[in-house]
Amino acid sequence: MMMGTSRPLPRWSETLVACLALLLLACMPASARPPQFSAAVPGKQLSFPRDFGAHPDFRTEWWYVTGWLEMPDRKPVGFQVTFFRSATEHDTDNPSRFAPKQLVIAHVALSDPALGKLLHDQKIAREGFGLAYAKQGDTDVKLGDWRFVRNSEGRYTVDVAARDFALNFTLTPTQQRMLQGDRGFSRKGPKPEQASYYYSEPQLKVAGTIRRNGKPVDVRGSAWLDHEWSTTVLDPDAAGWDWTGINLDDGSALMAFQIRAKDGSRMWAHAALRDPAGKVTQFNAGQVHFQPQRTWNSPRTSATYPVATRIETGTDAWDLSPLQDDQELDSRQSTGAVYWEGAVSVSRGGKPAGRGYLEMTGYVKPFKL
C-alpha cells in the first residue's frame, strides 16, 4: 500500500494491526527462515552497467541525488531526490506476489531561502505489481508516479510530483564515475564487515523544470549522485554520520564523512578528493576532521545541528555554509528518521570554492538503518 503523509492510526487500530501481524506470523510455515544477505567484501571489482542497478541480496541500498539549481532570476535553490531499497526479513521462498520482500522508499526536498524552510515529501511501498520496483541491470527505480532512471547514453531522468512541487530533470554526466574507498569498497567502521559498495557521479549537469503553484520554471545547475549498497554498515555504538559531497568550481570533487559514536566521539572517518585530471587522493581517519563553526536549533525536534562546519582533509580546510539554516527533513513516516540534509556553499582560504550538500544523521536519536 502506497503511503504519503498521513495521520497517526487510532490506538484501537494499532492494536488491531498488531494482532493481525501476530496471527500472520503464527500461520507461517515452520520451515520459513529469514533471508541470508550478502556482505560487502574487499577485492570485488564493480561492473557497469550491472552495478548501476539494484542489488536485492543486500539489506539496504540507495540512489541519492543532491544539487544546486539557478532560477530565472539567478537566485539559487537546492534539491534532493533519494530512492531507497530495503530488504525485509520476510521469507524469500514465499511465492505470494503480495509478500513484502522488498520495500521501496523515496524522499524529495527543495531548499529555497525565499521560503525559509525545507519543502519535502516522502513515500513508501512494498515492491511489486509494477507500482514500485528497483530493477537490476541498470538504474531504474519507481515508486508510484515517482521515477529515477538511467538511459543507454548514460543520462538520468528524474520525474517526481511531490505534494507542493514537481521536479522534472535530466542529469548528464561530465566526468567518469568516482569509486569511493578501495575501488568501491568503502569502510564505515573499525570492523571489516562495517562496509558498503559505493560510487559517486560528481559534476552532473542538470537541466529541466521545477513546477510550483501549477507553473513550470526552467532551471539549470549541477548535481552529485551517490549509489551505495550494504548489509552491515553502522557499529552498534554509532549514533549517526556527517557526510558531504561537493562539486568544486575547478572541476574537482570532494567527498568526506565521519561516523559519530553515541558518546559524541568520532568512530570512523574518510575523505577522497579527485582533481580535474582525475587523480584521486584518499584521506584516512586520522586526516579527516569535522569542526563545527555554528549550530542551529530545530524548533520542531529541539535537535542541535552544526550547520556551518569546517572539514579538514590533510592540510586543506574547507568551510561549509548553509544555503539556509532550516533544512531538517522529518522522514518518520517512511524511514523512521529525522535528519538534516542541506545545500551548502564551500570556501577555501576565504575564497569561494564550490557548492554541495551536507547530510547529518543521528542528532535527534541514534540513527538505525
SSE topology sketch:
Layout: H1 11-27, E1 60-70, E2 76-87, E3 102-111, E4 118-126, E5 132-134, E6 140-143, E7 146-150, E8 156-161, E9 166-172, E10 178-179, E11 185-187, E12 195-212, E13 215-230, E14 238-248, E15 253-261, E16 266-274, E17 280-283, E18 288-297, E19 304-313, E20 316-322, E21 328-331, E22 337-348, E23 351-361
What do these coordinates show?
- There is one protein chain.
- The protein has a single domain (49-92, 101-361), classed as AttH-like fold (Beta Barrel), CATH 2.40.370.10.
- It is 5% helix and 52% strand.
- The protein is built from one helix and 23 strands.
- It has one helix at residues 11-27, and strands at 60-70, 76-87, 102-111, 118-126, 132-134, 140-143, 146-150, 156-161, 166-172, 178-179, 185-187, 195-212, 215-230, 238-248, 253-261, 266-274, 280-283, 288-297, 304-313, 316-322, 328-331, 337-348, 351-361.
- Strands 1, 2, 3, 4, 5, 6, 7, 8, 9, 10, 11, 12 and 13 form a 13-stranded antiparallel β-sheet that branches.
- The protein starts with 10 loop residues before the first helix and ends in an 8-residue tail after the last strand.
